[in-house]
Amino acid sequence: MPLDADHPWARLKVGPSARIIEAINAMFSLTPIGHANEPATSYAFADGAPGRIGVIASVTEPFCDTCNRLRLTAEGQVRACLFALEETDLRGPMRDGASDEELEALVRTTVWRKWSGHRINHADFVQPARSMSMIGG
């Protein structure tokens, strides 16, 4: 995903999730489980072996239209998307004594500004400056 610290990510280096599942399925037969309420598409081992495999294909199979997630960073910033270029500060208002209603309004505003998609596959995509480790992923 284009959230690496050194920013060497390039769309041309991305492999489709189908190829990953195909390679694993060739060695260990898989049964699709689906998405449930998570971004990963999950697979169980067809022979009933314990464990499962999950693939988050946010680049090759975006799921933005069904995403219902927010991220709260360690610094108290709310992000409406991992790829968002803006964050909403909650730490400052909390330290200043903001009421629950005021904090709720900040979160709601962030949610209403949530993008319809991350634009990774568009020519105008801008990689976020903060890496996934800085965001808290």
Topology:
Layout: H1 17-27, E1 30-34, E2 41-45, E3 52-55, E4 71-72, E5 77-79, E6 88-89, H2 91-95, H3 100-112, H4 132-135
Description:
- There is one protein chain.
- The strands form 2 sheets. Strands 1-2-3 form a 3-stranded antiparallel beta sheet, with helices on one face.
- The model has no long low-confidence stretch (mean pLDDT 86).
- Strand 4 and strand 5 form a beta hairpin.
- 24% of the residues lie in helices and 15% in strands.
- It is globular and about 55 Å long.
- The longest helix is centred in the C-terminal third of the chain and has 13 residues, at 100-112.
- The protein is α+β, with helices and mostly antiparallel strands and 137 residues long.
